[in-house]
Amino acid sequence: MPFGYDGRVFGRKKEKAETEATQPQVVEEPQAPVDPKFTPKKGRPTPSRKEREAARRKPLVGGNDHAFANDREARAELRRREREDNAKLRIRQNEALRGGDQRFLPLVDQGPQRRYIRDYVDARRNLGDFMLIVLLVLLVGGWIGQGISGSSEVGVSIYYGSVYAMYAAMLLWVIDYFILWRGLKKNLIAKFGEVQRGGGMYTFNRVMMVRRWRRPVPMVKYGEYPH
Q1: Residue 220 DSSP SS3
Q2: CB contact set of 88 (below 8 Å; sequence gap of 6+)
Q3: How many degrees, rounded to 5, is the angle at CA 165 between CA 164 and CA 169?
Q4: 74, 68 in Cβ contact below 8 A?
Q5: Angle CA(117)–CA(120)–CA(125) in degrees, nearest 5?
Q6: What is the pLDDT of residues 108-160, one digit of tens each?
Q7: If we measure between CA atoms, which residue out of 75, 88, 99, 117 comes closest to residue 205?
Q8: Separation CA 98–CA 226 (nearest Å)
Q9: Which is the most buried residue in 5, 43, 175, 184, by most CB within 10 A?
Q10: Does the pTM of the predicted model rise above 0.70?
Q11: 187, 120 in Cβ contact below 8 A?
Q12: What whole-number distance in Å separates Cα of residue 181 and Cα of residue 137?
Protein backbone atom coordinates (compact mmCIF):
# COMPACT_ATOMS: atom_id res chain seq x y z
CA MET A 1 0.00 0.00 0.00
CA PRO A 2 1.38 3.41 -0.91
CA PHE A 3 2.42 5.68 1.85
CA GLY A 4 -0.30 8.03 3.11
CA TYR A 5 -3.37 6.18 1.62
CA ASP A 6 -5.90 5.21 4.33
CA GLY A 7 -8.67 3.62 2.13
CA ARG A 8 -11.50 5.98 3.12
CA VAL A 9 -12.11 7.30 -0.46
CA PHE A 10 -12.86 3.79 -1.71
CA GLY A 11 -15.36 3.35 1.09
CA ARG A 12 -17.37 6.45 0.17
CA LYS A 13 -17.78 5.34 -3.45
CA LYS A 14 -18.97 1.93 -2.35
CA GLU A 15 -21.47 3.46 0.05
CA LYS A 16 -22.83 5.79 -2.66
CA ALA A 17 -23.31 2.90 -5.06
CA GLU A 18 -25.27 0.92 -2.47
CA THR A 19 -27.61 3.93 -1.80
CA GLU A 20 -28.40 4.40 -5.50
CA ALA A 21 -29.11 0.68 -5.82
CA THR A 22 -31.75 0.79 -3.08
CA GLN A 23 -33.72 3.76 -4.65
CA PRO A 24 -36.53 2.82 -7.10
CA GLN A 25 -35.92 3.60 -10.71
CA VAL A 26 -38.61 5.77 -12.43
CA VAL A 27 -39.18 4.83 -16.01
CA GLU A 28 -40.98 7.46 -18.12
CA GLU A 29 -43.48 6.03 -20.56
CA PRO A 30 -43.51 7.53 -24.03
CA GLN A 31 -46.48 9.85 -24.68
CA ALA A 32 -48.42 9.90 -27.90
CA PRO A 33 -48.21 13.13 -29.90
CA VAL A 34 -51.16 15.56 -29.39
CA ASP A 35 -53.27 16.23 -32.45
CA PRO A 36 -54.45 19.92 -32.41
CA LYS A 37 -57.47 19.04 -34.58
CA PHE A 38 -58.71 16.33 -32.24
CA THR A 39 -61.90 17.15 -30.24
CA PRO A 40 -62.86 14.84 -27.37
CA LYS A 41 -66.36 13.40 -27.36
CA LYS A 42 -69.01 15.18 -25.20
CA GLY A 43 -70.84 12.02 -24.29
CA ARG A 44 -74.06 13.13 -26.07
CA PRO A 45 -74.98 14.09 -29.65
CA THR A 46 -75.09 17.78 -30.62
CA PRO A 47 -78.75 18.99 -30.71
CA SER A 48 -80.10 19.98 -34.09
CA ARG A 49 -81.40 23.46 -34.95
CA LYS A 50 -85.01 22.30 -34.69
CA GLU A 51 -84.39 20.89 -31.22
CA ARG A 52 -82.74 24.15 -30.05
CA GLU A 53 -85.68 26.25 -31.30
CA ALA A 54 -88.14 23.91 -29.58
CA ALA A 55 -86.19 24.24 -26.32
CA ARG A 56 -86.36 28.05 -26.52
CA ARG A 57 -90.14 27.94 -27.02
CA LYS A 58 -90.61 25.67 -24.04
CA PRO A 59 -92.47 27.57 -21.23
CA LEU A 60 -90.89 28.09 -17.83
CA VAL A 61 -92.23 26.51 -14.67
CA GLY A 62 -95.39 28.22 -13.42
CA GLY A 63 -97.34 28.67 -16.62
CA ASN A 64 -98.12 32.38 -16.07
CA ASP A 65 -97.81 35.17 -18.62
CA HIS A 66 -94.49 36.42 -17.29
CA ALA A 67 -92.88 33.03 -17.94
CA PHE A 68 -92.97 33.83 -21.67
CA ALA A 69 -91.42 37.30 -21.31
CA ASN A 70 -88.37 36.39 -23.36
CA ASP A 71 -90.31 34.87 -26.21
CA ARG A 72 -91.43 37.07 -29.09
CA GLU A 73 -94.75 35.34 -29.58
CA ALA A 74 -95.54 35.50 -25.88
CA ARG A 75 -94.76 39.23 -25.73
CA ALA A 76 -97.02 39.82 -28.71
CA GLU A 77 -99.77 37.86 -26.98
CA LEU A 78 -99.35 39.96 -23.82
CA ARG A 79 -99.59 43.19 -25.81
CA ARG A 80 -102.73 41.95 -27.53
CA ARG A 81 -104.33 41.12 -24.18
CA GLU A 82 -103.38 44.54 -22.79
CA ARG A 83 -104.99 46.26 -25.78
CA GLU A 84 -108.16 44.24 -25.31
CA ASP A 85 -108.28 45.03 -21.58
CA ASN A 86 -107.73 48.75 -22.23
CA ALA A 87 -110.46 48.75 -24.87
CA LYS A 88 -112.90 47.08 -22.47
CA LEU A 89 -111.98 49.58 -19.75
CA ARG A 90 -112.61 52.53 -22.09
CA ILE A 91 -115.99 51.11 -23.05
CA ARG A 92 -116.95 50.76 -19.38
CA GLN A 93 -115.75 54.28 -18.61
CA ASN A 94 -117.75 55.75 -21.50
CA GLU A 95 -120.84 53.91 -20.32
CA ALA A 96 -120.28 55.21 -16.79
CA LEU A 97 -119.87 58.78 -18.09
CA ARG A 98 -123.22 58.43 -19.84
CA GLY A 99 -124.91 57.40 -16.61
CA GLY A 100 -123.94 53.75 -16.31
CA ASP A 101 -122.14 51.94 -13.51
CA GLN A 102 -120.43 54.67 -11.47
CA ARG A 103 -117.72 52.24 -10.29
CA PHE A 104 -116.01 52.50 -13.68
CA LEU A 105 -115.77 56.28 -13.82
CA PRO A 106 -112.33 57.79 -14.46
CA LEU A 107 -110.30 58.42 -11.30
CA VAL A 108 -110.84 62.18 -11.48
CA ASP A 109 -114.62 61.66 -11.24
CA GLN A 110 -114.67 59.01 -8.51
CA GLY A 111 -115.54 59.59 -4.88
CA PRO A 112 -118.54 60.92 -2.91
CA GLN A 113 -117.21 64.51 -2.89
CA ARG A 114 -116.89 64.59 -6.66
CA ARG A 115 -120.44 63.28 -6.96
CA TYR A 116 -121.66 65.99 -4.55
CA ILE A 117 -119.97 68.71 -6.64
CA ARG A 118 -121.55 67.43 -9.84
CA ASP A 119 -125.01 67.24 -8.36
CA TYR A 120 -124.71 70.72 -6.81
CA VAL A 121 -123.59 72.31 -10.08
CA ASP A 122 -126.21 70.46 -12.14
CA ALA A 123 -129.02 71.43 -9.76
CA ARG A 124 -128.19 75.15 -10.11
CA ARG A 125 -129.03 77.36 -13.10
CA ASN A 126 -125.65 78.71 -14.12
CA LEU A 127 -124.58 81.16 -16.78
CA GLY A 128 -122.31 78.41 -18.01
CA ASP A 129 -125.33 76.36 -19.04
CA PHE A 130 -125.59 78.43 -22.24
CA MET A 131 -122.58 80.78 -22.17
CA LEU A 132 -120.54 78.93 -24.79
CA ILE A 133 -123.40 79.30 -27.26
CA VAL A 134 -123.67 83.02 -26.49
CA LEU A 135 -119.94 83.52 -26.99
CA LEU A 136 -120.06 81.65 -30.30
CA VAL A 137 -122.88 83.87 -31.56
CA LEU A 138 -121.03 87.03 -30.51
CA LEU A 139 -117.85 85.78 -32.19
CA VAL A 140 -119.64 85.18 -35.48
CA GLY A 141 -121.29 88.59 -35.19
CA GLY A 142 -117.89 90.20 -34.72
CA TRP A 143 -116.59 88.52 -37.87
CA ILE A 144 -119.58 89.71 -39.87
CA GLY A 145 -119.23 93.25 -38.53
CA GLN A 146 -115.54 93.27 -39.37
CA GLY A 147 -116.30 92.11 -42.90
CA ILE A 148 -118.73 94.94 -43.64
CA SER A 149 -117.03 97.63 -41.57
CA GLY A 150 -115.18 98.96 -44.61
CA SER A 151 -118.40 99.88 -46.45
CA SER A 152 -120.74 100.84 -43.63
CA GLU A 153 -120.66 102.38 -40.17
CA VAL A 154 -123.18 99.78 -39.09
CA GLY A 155 -120.55 97.09 -39.57
CA VAL A 156 -118.17 98.96 -37.26
CA SER A 157 -120.87 99.24 -34.59
CA ILE A 158 -121.67 95.50 -34.89
CA TYR A 159 -118.02 94.58 -34.58
CA TYR A 160 -117.27 96.67 -31.48
CA GLY A 161 -120.60 95.80 -29.93
CA SER A 162 -119.84 92.09 -30.30
CA VAL A 163 -116.38 92.47 -28.80
CA TYR A 164 -117.59 94.43 -25.75
CA ALA A 165 -120.51 92.05 -25.23
CA MET A 166 -118.12 89.10 -25.35
CA TYR A 167 -115.86 90.58 -22.66
CA ALA A 168 -118.87 91.42 -20.48
CA ALA A 169 -120.26 87.90 -20.84
CA MET A 170 -116.95 86.35 -19.86
CA LEU A 171 -116.69 88.61 -16.82
CA LEU A 172 -120.21 87.66 -15.69
CA TRP A 173 -119.33 84.04 -16.30
CA VAL A 174 -116.37 84.21 -13.90
CA ILE A 175 -118.36 86.15 -11.28
CA ASP A 176 -121.13 83.56 -11.42
CA TYR A 177 -118.56 80.82 -10.80
CA PHE A 178 -117.15 82.53 -7.69
CA ILE A 179 -120.64 82.95 -6.26
CA LEU A 180 -121.33 79.26 -6.88
CA TRP A 181 -118.00 78.12 -5.40
CA ARG A 182 -118.45 80.21 -2.27
CA GLY A 183 -121.65 78.43 -1.31
CA LEU A 184 -120.48 75.01 -2.50
CA LYS A 185 -117.25 75.20 -0.52
CA LYS A 186 -119.16 75.82 2.73
CA ASN A 187 -121.34 72.79 2.06
CA LEU A 188 -118.32 70.58 1.31
CA ILE A 189 -116.57 71.53 4.55
CA ALA A 190 -119.78 71.02 6.56
CA LYS A 191 -120.42 67.58 5.02
CA PHE A 192 -116.93 66.14 4.45
CA GLY A 193 -114.79 68.15 6.88
CA GLU A 194 -112.51 69.46 4.13
CA VAL A 195 -112.38 70.23 0.43
CA GLN A 196 -110.74 67.54 -1.65
CA ARG A 197 -107.66 68.67 -3.55
CA GLY A 198 -108.59 69.97 -6.98
CA GLY A 199 -112.22 70.53 -6.03
CA GLY A 200 -112.23 74.16 -7.14
CA MET A 201 -110.88 73.40 -10.62
CA TYR A 202 -113.21 70.42 -10.94
CA THR A 203 -116.15 72.73 -10.20
CA PHE A 204 -114.86 75.36 -12.63
CA ASN A 205 -114.55 72.88 -15.50
CA ARG A 206 -118.07 71.62 -14.92
CA VAL A 207 -119.80 74.95 -14.49
CA MET A 208 -118.15 76.34 -17.64
CA MET A 209 -119.58 73.54 -19.78
CA VAL A 210 -123.02 73.52 -21.36
CA ARG A 211 -125.27 71.26 -19.31
CA ARG A 212 -126.06 68.96 -22.26
CA TRP A 213 -122.36 68.39 -22.97
CA ARG A 214 -121.24 67.62 -19.41
CA ARG A 215 -119.59 64.31 -18.62
CA PRO A 216 -120.48 62.48 -16.45
CA VAL A 217 -124.01 63.36 -17.52
CA PRO A 218 -126.19 65.22 -14.97
CA MET A 219 -128.02 62.83 -12.65
CA VAL A 220 -130.32 65.43 -11.05
CA LYS A 221 -132.80 68.00 -12.30
CA TYR A 222 -132.76 71.73 -11.68
CA GLY A 223 -133.45 72.47 -8.01
CA GLU A 224 -132.59 68.95 -6.72
CA TYR A 225 -129.61 69.97 -4.56
CA PRO A 226 -127.74 67.21 -2.71
CA HIS A 227 -128.09 66.98 1.06
Answers
A1: coil
A2: none
A3: 120
A4: yes
A5: 130
A6: 888 999 999 999 999 999 988 888 888 899 989 888 888 776 667 777 888 88
A7: 117
A8: 20
A9: 184
A10: no
A11: yes
A12: 27
